[in-house]
Specification:
The chain is an alpha/beta fold. The chain has a single domain, classed as Rossmann fold (3-Layer(aba) Sandwich), CATH 3.40.50. The chain contains nine helices and eleven strands. Strands 8-7-6-5-9-10-11 form a seven-stranded parallel β-sheet, sandwiched between helices. α3 runs parallel beside α4. It is globular and about 50 Å long. GO terms for molecular function: hydrolase activity. Its EC number is 3.2.2.n1. It holds the Pfam family Lysine_decarbox. It comes from Lentzea alba. Keywords: Cytokinin biosynthesis, Hydrolase.
């Protein structure tokens, strides 16, 4: 890939991550991912013999993640679309949010990819903060973006999700797709069931998220599937200062009890 921005040419070749391994050029044409091979039970029954050994690889990913992130300062995970272009207003918003988190003393954790994730990592790094990317092996090319200061690549989504939760004090969701929605509802479920505490979930961009919020309120809440306290776990905003305030207040409340 060669892209010119502000006079800087990025000549990094296309790449694909396979756990901690980087595959570039014609070496990146593998059609399946580790997650897919683990979860797809179709085919020969030799998986009976190979799956127990996969446990060791899964264990190794947990150990590697815990070791790499053990000394990370207070951090906020920001999710958002990998498809957000650098010329899109949401990209600049991500940069501003990343910078604001850094200035508030928080590290910024993203999925490490392009789009909104890159924007947040970039804003955080440019503001002198600690910019972290937790990548994942995908069937298409997606390396860690160049604004990640500390990067860890995972083969398994569930290991990566554990790292997002364990090392974050809050989630902020920029407009995003299925991956963002997946992380959003997993975080809400963990907070609702008290698996994690003092963990705010911020939906940033009311025009994008209002419809989802209204549906939860009018259908899920009204149908008795969640309670008022559950709905209150979500905070909608269009203001970066407001989002950072919610994070800081929750973090201070947590610190006061520990």
């Amino acid at each position: 890939m060669t892209e010119k921005e502000n006079g800087v040419v990025d000549e990094r070749p296309k790449e694909k991550m396979r756990g901690p391994v980087v595959l570039r050029r014609d070496r990146r044409d593998e059609l399946t991912t580790t997650d897919q091979r683990l979860l797809d039970s179709r085919g020969p029954s030799d998986w009976v013999h190979t799956d127990p050994w996969r446990v060791l690889r899964i264990q190794a990913e947990f150990v590697e993640g815990f070791g790499a992130l053990a000394e990370v300062p207070s951090a906020v995970t920001v999710f958002g679309s990998a498809r957000t272009g650098r010329d899109h207003p949401e990209y600049q918003l991500g940069r501003d949010l990343g910078a604001a988190l850094a200035q508030a003393g928080f590290a910024a954790i993203t999925g490490g990819g392009p789009g909104a994730m890159e924007a947040v990592n970039r804003g955080c790094s440019e503001a002198g903060g600690f910019s972290i990317g937790l990548g994942i092996e995908l069937p298409f090319e997606q390396g860690l973006n160049p604004w990640v200061d500390l990067g860890v690549n995972f083969r398994y989504f569930f290991v990566r999700k554990t790292m997002f939760i364990k090392y974050s004090q809050a989630f902020i969701c920029l407009p995003g797709g299925f991956g963002t929605l997946d992380e959003l509802f997993e975080a809400l479920t963990l907070v609702q069931t008290k698996k994690v505490t003092k963990f705010p979930v911020v939906l940033f961009g009311t025009q994008y998220w209002q419809g989802l919020y209204d549906w939860i309120k009018s259908s899920v809440l009204e149908g008795g599937k969640v309670g008022e306290k559950d709905l209150a776990l979500l905070h909608l905003t269009d203001d970066i200062e407001d989002a950072v305030r919610v994070v800081k207040e929750a973090h201070q409340a947590w610190a006061d009890t520990h």
